[in-house]
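Reproducibility note. Readers wishing to regenerate the assembly model reported in the main text can use the exact inputs given here. Chain order matters: entities are listed in the order in which they were concatenated for prediction.
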Amino acid sequence: MTRQETGRQLQFAQQPLMPASLYVDTTQAPPVTERLSGETRFDVAVIGAGITGLSAALHIAASGRRAAVLDSAEPGWGASGRNGGQVNPGLKTLPSEVERDFGREVGRRLAVAAWNAPDLVFALIERYRIQCSPARGGTIRAATGQAQLPGLERLTDECRARGGDAAWLNAAEMAALTGTSRYVAGMIDRRGGQINPLAYTRGLAAAAIREGAAVYSNSRVVGLSRSGEAWRVRTPTGAIVAGHVVLAANGYTDGLWPELAESVIPLFSAIVATEPLPRTLAQTILARREVLYELGDVTIYYRVDDAGRLLVGGRSASRPLCGPDAFPFLRELALRVWPNLDGVEWTHGWNGRLAMTRDHYPHWHEPAPDVIAALGYNGRGVAMATLLGREISRRIDGTPAHDMLLPTRPISPIPLHRFWPAGVAARVAFGQWKDSRTERGRA
Ligand SMILES: Cc1cc2nc3c(=O)[nH]c(=O)nc-3n(C[C@H](O)[C@H](O)[C@H](O)COP(=O)(O)OP(=O)(O)OC[C@H]3O[C@@H](n4cnc5c(N)ncnc54)[C@H](O)[C@@H]3O)c2cc1C
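Running the prediction on these inputs yields the following structure tokens for the assembly.
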């Protein structure tokens, strides 16, 4: 056991453990981080050490300010260290809809930035030499039924019209790429790709520390109060006094800032992973390390990693679960899609919480002087959270609100928010019914 591992065990003995996952078993140990103790001054206190918080801290520190990141657990404990590893360009809506919803100038700026957000992820990986098995094979959006084709055609046209490297894939091309005849068509956007997300997030933490930021683990923020011109950020064992506060807890947002948690739906998503596939089988599924997600309401997403393991993600029960047998729906679906997976061992299964918004856009709030919250990536946080982390740094550097990618909006709690688990279950059931109709209309 290395000294770093010994230190980590000692430091993390009292805190929520990293939930078991393929990534925990295959990723280098995180940088050594400590619990906050005593009172310290920083320019910026960032709450949440996921991609949003760490990208913010990295950019803030690189621009010469003193930043501290605090996490209840450790860097990457949230969705950032458990996700599908898909570095996807774009938002949930079409570029033209973004332009309509935000106005021509702001909408165009946001659409261009969101669709090119993977550039920043891969640039940071290169600049800071983050060892996270990156591959830029492209993102495929896959249509399972005819009804999805007009929207996909529009998206392809709009991406190409805006300079994106996007191409239409017919049913035969989709079958050749995916090893299944499940799809009627698809679109590949070559700006996308894949990473090991826990390794990426830990790499961002290490890079932020190298740039001069402090990262505290096992340091849950339990109180925020204004103290003169500054903010006092309190944990059970210490406090930080800072000029700016960043709220970056996304699907794990708690009651720290009134009403923020009620402004998003904390949806669970799950992933199951196989042992490395036999070579002949691995060569039939996304062999160039493309990533794929299905269109539709209750969809699956998948990729094959650098060791040849298949990772399939999709819906999950709304509670923390782990183990390869915890998500039978995903395994059964995968076997229906690729019957020759029969006999391949499923080694891991885990889930986590992401944040959905009612308008499908990420939200940016400045609810008090020098407080910024960015959340609600709707399952596209790897690239977008990296980008908004940089935006947070720009704002703290003095960029005027009207030059930011996202306009500031008031925090708007979702009515009847406490019933979200029932609402999600009903939405999933309705989505499955809709998807089954879409699939019936495929022939
Ligand atoms: C299973 C799954 C698969 C996904 N797949 C993809 C994908 O393939 N591609 C993609 O783009 N997106 C995907 N997503 C979404 C993506 O992971 C998230 O959008 C993104 O990671 C959000 O990052 P974040 O830093 O904002 O939040 P998180 O990574 O969730 O981090 C929030 C952190 O805040 C901390 N925290 C909360 N409250 C406090 C407090 N009071 N004090 C201190 N710390 C606190 C938590 O401990 C946590 O570490 C997926 C999500 C899940 C769950």
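We highlight two features of this model. The radius of gyration is 21 Å. Residues 13-82+198-264+359-414 form a domain with the FAD/NAD(P)-binding domain fold (CATH 3.50.50.60).
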